[in-house]
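From the pipeline queue, job 12 of 40. The input is one protein chain; the requested action is below.

Action: predict structure.
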Amino acid sequence: MTVQDVPLAAALTIPRPESQPRRLIESRSLDLAIPVAIRVGEMIGQLLVVIVLAGRTNVDVASRFTIWDGQLYAQIARFGYPDRISIGSNKSLESGAGFAFSPLYPALTKLLSVPLGGNILVAELVLTCTAGCVFSVLVHLLVRDAGYGRRAGYLACAVVGLLPMAVVLQMGYAEALFAALSAGGTPSRKQGTVERRRGFGVPRWCYPADRLRCRRTDRGRGASG
């Protein structure tokens, strides 16, 4: 049996494991960065499609993202809700269509327009795109916390963003905000999710369903104890 000489310094060197806090920060960064990158990439792709279609019809590209409901939301953000509903002689609605829209989206648009120089349409797009990115992150977290892993979460983000109606997640519509709030209010299947999400940096009030479930669990434990 041959005995090899090993330098003393090498023999005394003990490999140091990777720092646990560093690994935790890196994993949480991936949970945030990759879903946002997926959503941004999809928005760029959808924007290119709109540019091509608008070029064929000689239509302003920016107006395509703030048409229809976007104009009504902008009107509510600027002037508030109408004070009356007017019905024409042919029984058609002439004024008062703004009452069909919820107030949260135009209120946030109005608030966001303040640092943007009062530009309501730009504020709509900024709010919608931000909410779409938040929605993408929350979809990833829901899939990951359900036990399917990070890769499945990333795939879910991509699939949701590629649906035909996902283009409204970057238009002046309230769908992106509604989707983000719905994903935040969806309870996870895995215990302790609220604590992990709080550590991830998401406020506890963003997950009312998890918070309610935890309260009921605590009450049940107290009653059984």
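Job complete. The chain has two domains: 23-176, 185-225.
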